[in-house]
## 1
Amino acid sequence: MRGDLSGLPPTLVQVGTRDGLLGQAARFSRAARRSGADVVLDVWDGLWHTWQYHRDLPEADQALAEAAAFVRATLRSEH
């Protein structure tokens, strides 16, 4: 967050409200935006660090689907 964040590609940050890194994710997103990066900060209520790996959670499937859609949209916009 203190380094040069200019030139970052479009970035999706998914974080839960119970994640110990929530504050850092928000600060990183703000710093990257100030550097001109296109950043989406996606905060998920009640979820913890790496909830996306818990395949028994519907939110995990939704988060991974949204991440895949973000990547597809980013790749389409580059062409």
## 2
Amino acid sequence: MPPNPPLDPKASLWNLIAVYLRLQREHRGLSGESLGRIIGASKATVSKIENGKDRLNIGHAKLLDAAWETGNPELLEGGLFEWLIFFASLGHRPQWGQEYARFEQASRIIRIFEPSRMTGLLQTPDYARALLAKAGVADPEPVVAERMERKAVLDRAFVTVTLSEAALRWPVGSPAIMREQLAHVLELAERPNIVVHAIPATFDTGAYLGLVL
């Protein structure tokens, strides 16, 4: 099998943890199996963590910090790996879009709320293209293609979409693009596995929960 490509530690804090873990293991002359004994995991799990396929968890981190004495209890509660995981769990993940897409494709029930624009799974190619052009995407075609591929989930999942009136009315692209987009939503709403709700912009509706949260 070809070797796994090296992780970029600048891409995310999780990548940095994986790279640093491997560096520290090799610096101490430990095998993956030896490290596994420290954290109570198999050699295969250690390999997955170091290659970014899995993540070091807080239990592993505490065992590592204790074994490698990475902290000073007189100055700070917890060791280095425990704190790295704490901040990695809070921080932004550049790969969140890819992770979301994987969860979406594996889902059988999807619920979506969108207050401002047409949600991605309901977009037509021209509507998506117009949005991306305004966002300054130089070459929107790969993104449009990926977005259209995601729509395959509409053929097998039960999908409930709640759109605000503003999302339906906000002009994107041109009148022709909007007509096609709204007609597409109506067509999708005819499917037995897709339910589309619209929240009217009236004083009777007022400040509903979706605006508050």
## 3
Amino acid sequence: MRPLAGTATPPTRVYSGYVLLCLLLGYTFNFLDRVVVGVLQEPLRNEFSLSDFQLGLLGGPAFAILYTVTGIPIARWADRGNRVFIVSLAIGLWSAMTAVTGLAASYLHLLLARIGVSIGEAGCSPPSQSLISDYFAPERRGTAFSIFALGVPMGNLLAAVGASWIAFNYGWRVTFGVLGVAGILLSLLIRLTVREPQRTTPPKAAGRLIPAARYLFGKPTYRFVIAGTVFAALGGFSLGQYLTSYFVRVHELNLAAAGLSVGMVTGVAAGIGTFSGGVLADRLMKRFPTAQSWLPGIGVALGVPLYLTGLFADGPRTAMIFLMVAVVCHFCYLGPMFAINQSIAPPRMRSTAVAILLLFVSLLGLALGPPILGALSDFFAGMTIPAESALRWLCLDIEAGVSCTLGSADSLRAAMMIMVAGDVAAAICFLLVGRTLLQDREEHVPV
């Protein structure tokens, strides 16, 4: 193991594990504060009289645009500067803006507060993944990145269960305040207890952005990783934002009960899929060197029919069970794709490789997914569909010869079903990664 900066002593496994735990908590709050708007969007919709499209803008472009614009400069800074300082500063900034969200008096105020959150959150993932790469050897990174990626389901779980419970009992404004204060305390813990490790490449070797991007995009593996992750995120972000609304509108659960169901899907099930995907890929690599590619491809493909079955289910329990299995399959891609992304990037470009990946995921997945789903839901809600129409499947309770005007429940379910289609393209891209993965790796991975 490489020594820490300024010392000749390599970090112990215990300390490396502690660092990973701190970064995992930071990534958890990163997603918790990102997705909490989706969990709380029903009370937000009622208070500010918002349409589904406006909710989609709040969870998508309002967050994604500046998150994307600031992500690459911050990543370039992380390739040269103190990554621990950057991570702690970022957590403190977005947590403060999360608290400010609870003071919003209008839809415009909500949008501005979400933009502030996005600027801070751009400083989390690239330097965190770069730190993990310096604390863990290549043969252990698949597992390490899967543990780090658990921040996604853990954040979703805390948002769905914890935030919904607080909002149900004390209101949505208190919820944002509690999350903001907790995040600020975490930022102080990381700044005071985590040390910057020695880099495998001197900071001055980071190079310029355009040559780095040209080098990375010259690798087919990198292009397919980006494409597959974008398609997976398109459906994942949009369904994730509206899943609480789905259980409230379609299955008529209250906010706390809906939050518990969503927590089981986006928290427990996503956690199982995320962790098992990385661990299983690491083990399979001993016999199948491209397992990091085809395992996510198969998993994401299997999730599509399971998603559709869950969305069509009559009762909330059946829906939750099928959606949980679908999410386990879907989220097995996170750890392996993070690991592949780092293995094909030179050490001096690791943060940049993550930032470019997140740029495309944010602009094409997060920024577009929720508003597209919201616009589809609003569109279907205004449609009148005759029984003989080819689109009659959109109206689930239609009877022969009777026209049906879709309500917000069925229109939302129909829009969610359409967004699932992106996973088919994601699966194809992940499978194509395996064709060039071995030749594009920058590091030898022991098998």
## 4
Amino acid sequence: MKSKKHIKITHPIEPLFNEHSRALILGSFPSVKSREEMFFYGHAQNRFWQVISSIFKEPIPKSIEEKKKLILSHNLALWDVIASCEIVGSSDSSIRNVKVNDLNRILSLAKIEKIFVNGKTAKKYYDKYIKDIIGREAICLPSTSPANAMWSLDELTEEYKQIII
């Protein structure tokens, strides 16, 4: 059996924020589907957009423009911890040779009050590479990935209510 090969990939998606953003949500690194779509949480089975729309009692966004509007209209910001890495497909466990994003791009322009990470992989790399640089803790929320089947949609939604500022 042939083993899958690590591929070096640079994060292709710009951060989503504006000067009104107060809560920053960081994933680890975009999945293959997100990279193809060129936007965050692009996999149809990822529950991120269901959770966010439920919290704010809004329709689930379909287009990238609708997703951007949902995030920005509720003073949120989105990005990922990792700027580039070697990865096999979308497998977080395969990530190696990490370089992280410079969060000051967001923190210097928005008054971010809370930083959240979507899942344990994002938390691991945030704590390892970013926390000491910016001197801020990140609150770890359960992953909205379809791989995190332990959490129901209702449970995820309840946990994600912390992002409301």
